[in-house]
Amino acid sequence: MMMETSPTTIAPVLIRKLLTSIFISADKSLLHLSEKFRFLEFPRYLLVSSFLFVLRVLPSLFPSIVHSPEYSYPTKKSPKSDIFSSSFGDNGGGDSGISRALGQLLSIINDIPVSSRKYEVVRSLAERLIEENHSEGFEELHEVNRTVIAAAFSRTLNQLEATVSGIERRRGVGRGIGGGVGGLIEKNGSLGGIFRAARYVGDVVWTRFVRAREEVTGSGESAEKLAAELLWLAQKLAACGGVEDVICLWASAWKLARLALSAEPRVQGSLVKVSAFMFKQAKEMNAEEVEESTKEKRRETNSKMLISWLPFLCRASNGTDAPILNGGERAEIERALEETIETLEREDQEKVLSSWLHHFTHCPSSDWPNLHACYARWCTASRKHLLLR
In terms of pTM, does the model score above 0.85? Predict the structure, then answer.
């Protein structure tokens, strides 16, 4: 049976529908203009705030139009999933007291803000445990260091990717609001559904507009801290002889590499340091005499790491006022990159160098890394290969 609609119900419905249409039209125009003229961001914010205020007031004046169970608008939470499923456990603590103690310390380091007085205390204590385990000379203690630090690196990598991804989402708050509301209106043909959809969007956007700027700033500082801790953990692991595990993790972090392209310059700077360290370590491992199966595995890892992180190195901010890497360091990384590329199969070299050429030539603000000599050698080798076939 259809419900009868009274004039008392129809009046607020028409008002709300009219306001929604006006808002969508006005917001689309202001969104387009505010991208060109920054001073229009504040008027647009006032428009959104006023619209959301009206959406909140109307239901309280006419509660009958939104409280019907027929028009419920469900929310759905997406399940959380780890970005990298680590085989090291939650904190790599293991089954011994010393490994659990070191795992707990490294976990606390992630959680404490760097501005806290206790941050340096905890970090110094962790460094002391790592150094003592290493200096004792027992393989069991060396394995504790490798396992726990690798687990901490994996956990920190997860947190960093989640943080950078969150920053990207919050930066996008407010873009396409009009289109989003219009889409909801199209999907919810009934008037009650329209109101529930509009109110739901209003609640979400209201919260995000108020806190978005503060959250982006705080998350940026957190991301920079986590990136710096990644470098510290990788350096500690290299000293313990277990850097190959984290090189594999870094090579698989393609999503973080993609997100890092639009990260803040300070975060990019820290990630440039981590990437530079990883490529230097990969170069040193390439010089080791190992079995052919191990060489093949390392070639695959090197190829993944180059495909993931070479575009980032081409496009990242390397520091203008205070360069992140000095001239000598940049030359060293270029040599490491060239040697790593030349360990790959010919087809993989082509993929990597083609990617480098694309990103290097499309980034006018940077001329590093310059792999022109490596590219020229590959061209010569390819020409010879064609003639010898």
Answer: no
Q: Does residue 311 have a cis bond before it (omega within 30 degrees)?
A: no
**What is the distance between the alpha carbons of residues 361 and 351, in angstroms, rounded to a whole number?**
16
Torsion over CA: 374, 380, 382, 384 (sign)? negative
Q: How many residues does the chain have?
A: 389
What are the start-end ranges of the H helices in the chain?
7-34, 41-61, 97-111, 117-136, 139-171, 177-187, 191-239, 243-251, 254-260, 265-286, 292-315, 327-341, 346-361, 372-388
User: 221 pLDDT band (50/70/90 cuts)?
Assistant: confident
- What is the Cα–Cα distance from 301 to 353, expressed in whole angstroms? 16
The span from the CA of 256 to the CA of 249, in Å, is 11
User: Of the candidates 105, 113, 95, which has an alpha carbon nearest to the alpha carbon of residue 130?
Assistant: 105
* Per-residue pLDDT band at 209 (split at 50, 70, 90): very low
Residue position matching structure tokens 């407010």: 174
- Between helices 243-251 and 191-239, what is the axis angle to 10°? 150
Judged against a pLDDT cut of 70, whether residue 264 lies above it is answered with yes
Give how far the C-alpha of residue 10 lies from the chain's centroid of Cα atoms, to the nearest Å: 47
Tokens read off for 131: 């150094």
Phi/psi for 343 (5° steps) reads -80, -10
Contact partners, residue 180, CB within 8 Å, separation at least 6: 201
Whole-Å CA distances, 80 to 77, 226, 237, 258: 9, 20, 29, 20
Cα(304)–Cα(351) distance, rounded to whole angstroms? 11
Q: How many CB atoms lie within 10 A of CB 96?
A: 12
